[in-house]
Amino acid sequence: MYRDLSTSLRTIMTPGPVEAEPRVLRALSTPILGQFDPEFTNMMNETMEMLRKLFQTNNYWAFPIDGTSRAGIEAVLCSIIEPGDRVLVPIYGRFGHLLTEIAERYDAEVVTMETEWGEVFQPHDVIEEIKKVKPKIVAMVHGETSTGRMQPLKEIGEACRDMDVLFVVDAVASIGGTDVKVDEWKIDACIGGTQKCLSVPSGMAPITFNSRIESILLERKKIERGLADREEDKKRRRPVIRSNYFDLSQLMDYWSPIRLNHHTEATSMLYALREGLRIVLEEGLEERFLRHQLHEKALIKGIKAMGLELFGNAKYKLPVVTCITIPEGIDGEAVLSMLLEDFDIEIASSFGPLKGKIWRIGTMGFSCRKKNILHVLGALEAVLIRHGLKLHAGRAVQAALDVYDNEKCAVETI
Length: 414
Description:
By secondary structure, the protein is an alpha/beta fold. The protein has helices at residues 22-28, 38-55, 69-80, 94-105, 123-133, 154-162, 211-224, 231-235, 248-255, 267-283, 285-306, 332-343, 370-386, 395-413; strands spanning 11-12, 61-66, 86-91, 109-114, 137-141, 143-144, 149-150, 166-170, 189-191, 204-209, 321-325, 345-346, 358-362. The protein has 2 domains: 21-280, 3-Layer(aba) Sandwich (Aspartate Aminotransferase, domain 2), CATH 3.40.640.10; 285-413, Alpha-Beta Complex (Aspartate Aminotransferase, domain 1), CATH 3.90.1150.
């Protein structure tokens, strides 16, 4: 006989997935409704409304794609790319390579530019490349979890709009943990994730897109149906039929008042996302971002007090991911294993050129709290001492406590 399901209680401090909000887990157990039940369609409308606030946009279209974050990225790209379209992807970590692969699978002509992992692009360099390449789409990562860096986007978005280039942004790691200003930064389509700063289990990918994207989707639908208005469009061959599941034009019908059936909605996941968004908005975006910054500061102070070095350009650090250079002579994987086995703490290594060179600690959503910061600092110090590293024993947790005490004093004096 198989045993009852029982999982270990972990302190998850990876860059995702993270610990789910308890209220979200309770929402997952809510009784199932039919997907066209008026109660459920009202929840769909509420979720769209809350997503607009999360993305800081006035776009009508803001809804989740059923699937992991990658599903949201693929839905956007496959719905707007036609064979031969030129797509520029600036790569500064693993997930720029993912954008490249997805675009190539839909027969785009992909042009890439790369910088050293741990750095980001200066906006003027990207803008110059846009002028040179003349792409239809610029696809870019906002928060790159593989390197712990965050790319400035505002100037790039403005340049794309001036040059009539579509700007598609992967904000999977940043949404809900730091500012993502879709309208102000002139982002045409933006993709988020549930399993990171929203503290909802993986399984949905919130997206939003504007009228510039919508016009492409509607025109493409007309061509496919032979209903194009313009003569030049009538003469065009039918666009390649790509994905049915990820076709945004069909999903628009499903999420509009028409409620044209496209798929069976992931009912319980929508409950979870709705509750996760309620928690975010109850806390307030600005307050939530400040909370993430506070715990990031405490973690960094503790790491430095221990005598460890941070990785990457500090000026462009992603507030919700902290990267640590693995000390010389230390087996990084052995440290991860001991943290998990002896302390029930999970942090992460990295990918590609950084594999075996850095550890990554995520401070995201519900995982981003004082108890977790103090626990991971104390445990990491203990594990490194067991592995023979000479460090400043006892200083890490005290340095983090100093940050919290100073913050408390600051609040009390306001």
